[in-house]
Amino acid sequence: MGVPKFYRWISERYPCLSEVVKEHQIPEFDNLYLDMNGIIHQCSHPNDDDVHFRISDDKIFTDIFHYLEVLFRIIKPRKVFFMAVDGVAPRAKMNQQRGRRFRSAKEAEDKIKKAIEKGETLPTEARFDSNCITPGTEFMARLHEHLKYFVNMKISTDKSWQGVTIYFSGHETPGEGEHKIMEFIRSEKAKPDHDPNTRHCLYGLDADLIMLGLTSHEAHFSLLREEVRFGGKKTQRVCAPEETTFHLLHLSLMREYIDYEFSALKDKITFKYDIERIIDDWILMGFLVGNDFIPHLPHLHINHDALPLLYGTYITILPELGGYINESGHLNLPRFEKYLVKLSDFDREHFSEVFVDLKWFESKVGNKYLNEAAGVAAEEAKNYKEKKKSKGQENSICWAALDKNGEEVVTSKDNLEDETEDDDLFETEFRQYKRTYYMTKMGVDVVSEYVFANAFTLKFYPYHYAPFLSDIRNISTLKIHFELGKPFKPFEQLLAVLPAASKNLLPTCYQHLMTNEDSPIIEYYPPDFKTDLNGKQQEWEAVVLIPFIDEKRLLEAMETCNHSLKKEERKRNQHSECLMCWYDSETEFTYPSPWPEKFPAIGRCCARYRIISLDAWRVDISKNKITRVDQKALYFCGFPTLKHIKHKFFLKKSGVQVFQQSSRGENMMLEILVNAESDELSVENIASSVLGKSLFVNWPHLEEARVVGFTWKNLQEHRSFIWEELHHPLKWSILETKNNLTGQKKYKEFQNSRKYQVNQNGEVRLEKQWSKQVLPFVYQTIVQDIRAFDSRFSNIKTLDDLFPPRSMVFMLGTPYYGCTGEVQDSGDVITEGRIRVVFSIPCEPNLDALIQNQHKYSIKYNPGYVLASRLGVSGYLVSRFTGSIFIGRGSRRNPHGDHKANVGLNLKFNKKNEEVPGYTKKVGSEWMYSSAAEQLLAEYLERAPELFSYIAKNSQEDVFYEDDIWPGENENGAEKVQEIITWLKGHPVSTLSRSSCDLQILDAAIVEKIEEEVEKC
Q1: CA nearest 563: which of 507, 488, 490?
Q2: Is residue 1008 pLDDT above 80, yes or no?
Q3: In the chain, domain spans
Q4: What is the reported pTM?
């Protein structure tokens, strides 16, 4: 349930929501949930723009395994690890899935066509079709088996996985990954022994996870996701998780920000102010800007301040409603209608802007347009009324709302006497404007369907567009009933969402249904289709205008082919349950490899599992109990709250920089309130109360620190100095009170590790280790005297607690420094302050001979003049072609645009002081070149001798031009340049990484020899 642009908007409005993950400061989490499809996409097609990119299945599986390992290692869940792969989606989601897959197939086809037109030679093997990441495909079946293998392998070999219960809900289990996770959380909450202080971490890329996490009403809930960079040049996604910057978005702060957003209601409503109910209504309001199940209301766009409009309207109307709109998951229709009626003022306000343009247009073309518009409006009104007679009562009620709404405005007795001719014109145009919208985009009424879709998110909404707000009337009389249907089988979903271009992902017996002209459902697979931005700005946001699938016709067409399914295909076309796995030391068996050539079998598998039925976690929504936690009474380390420092809040356009650029909308600003008593304390009193003591800084993302210094300054006098010197996260929190900046500044060391000291009685004492880096913080921003809880350290009192049997340790002494060990039963010696450990001593490779003979395997580098002599060119050309060479369009006298192509080999970079190992090396100020660089230059010279010749004659120029290098009518400089670029991009050297010239790097041949010695151990 993605909500485009929501994540960016919410992060800019509430700047403190997220923090960068620092491995030594990660909170302690009980449960880690992974929305797996984000990882699968990340590891399988990291660069969709490169039509030459190819990847093997074993590479994909290995990368996914590695990604899972890193995420597990970062979060270290204590109790539950839940891996959820998207299964068959609800019918409502298939609209969006279908459009997305048609679009991706079309974009891939267009990119391949452009590459071929440019003369590029594409690899012979098939490209990875990302549409195969859909339940029921052969790829997903293979991935499913490999993920089960991975879970069994980790449980059997990795001790950190052995104390955790692991749930694996694969693609065969119906439902989207994030919704299967939320079902599990609701089920756990419904248990009588549920701990309200359970700490949850959910990994996923969809912005709607913020909403889903808030529906849990859990106090300690964080979202883990990769860093998002907006604006600037599009970069290739990073596959390696070690090179990825992760962010934690804290829903504990999101809850408090929502409380601030609607705090004005506390003094306005007559019923109880309940933040949990406010959050439920906040989620409902989020539906109105669209998601994967229902489209956005007309002209309500997040980047055009739709959300502040929704919030402001809610604050205005809620005091009149007598209660909340979303009553524990049940939509109160009378209240919802009143809210939408108030919100519908936006329709007229938006059209009034259009109307001004229409009036200007009328002044230019006369009244002909107006008369035609009025005539069309009257004719369409007549047609619609005839159409209504054939519809059911519910739809007629909603259509009456549209007509009544328009008629009331025009014929109301209160308005008739005072209406001007312009008002009549406005209302006529307004009705025509809306009817044109319905006729061109839908042609039918959609009000009741839209209300049903909001009441039940999984209800199928059969239109591409939503109705106007001003047309949603009389909905309080609707009878909303939702019957839970059965999920599609995997092949049924595949045929429902895939385009004909991806037909090979289906069993052969179904493929003709997508391509044969005689197919009864051929119209569902158009080779070409239109898109409609519908007020959006980016092409990926456009509505894909393809027909909706008729479920009955689809199943009837498939029925004629089902008998042709093979045994293996029938197995793929079924649902299966979720697996619960855990470690059992008494269980031991051999787990077979799903791919023996790539992955070894697990010789001693110690994993047990239990099957969880499909409806085991289904809990009535009314049982989604809310447990309230006082976060101020006990601070759970790593779960920030705004409660520890007194402050006031307000919205202001302050241009806070969250995503590499200043935000354009309003930001929720926090201004710390100075305590008058502390402001009057003397320097000596403050210093004695904090010096040498540990406290918390970086509010609200508190980090423990120790005060090592203290200064008192008039910050008004030293404003620029303090502004530069203050640690960056707190720059925004300096106080400005009565036009004076005054305060005290403390210098603190951060805690970076902990160690334990054991006394003679066997008792363990924790000693905090402090960083040597000292940073300044304003006194008013520190937090003291709070109860902080972290069970990782608070429960360790004895050696038994510190070193329980089977725990992993590392040797810090000699001779086995760095070796891993396993703690044994030490009951007989632990009273003496000792423990028994069995260490794994790795074999040390003998590298003495290699060190003595490394010169034999090292790459030889020569000066540029040596290469120039061998190639028969000047040293200038060697230097120039191994760097950058820019060629512009047209000629120097008549250039065509500013675009310039770089046709240099890019083997050296003077400004950045970088080289390409194996090709270039900088010794002092002189560049040296290898034989590989010489061969590459020779090949280039043979391909484009005229380019070398021209540059040699025009060495004084910085930029060269196509028509100057290849003059004459028979020459095509643009094609020549494109041929060179294609050759350069296809050459292996284009993928090599650079390194700093200051680094000492082992040559590849030496690394291979080291690997050979290591393998001998």
Answers
A1: 507
A2: yes
A3: 674-797, 801-842, 856-1015
A4: 0.76
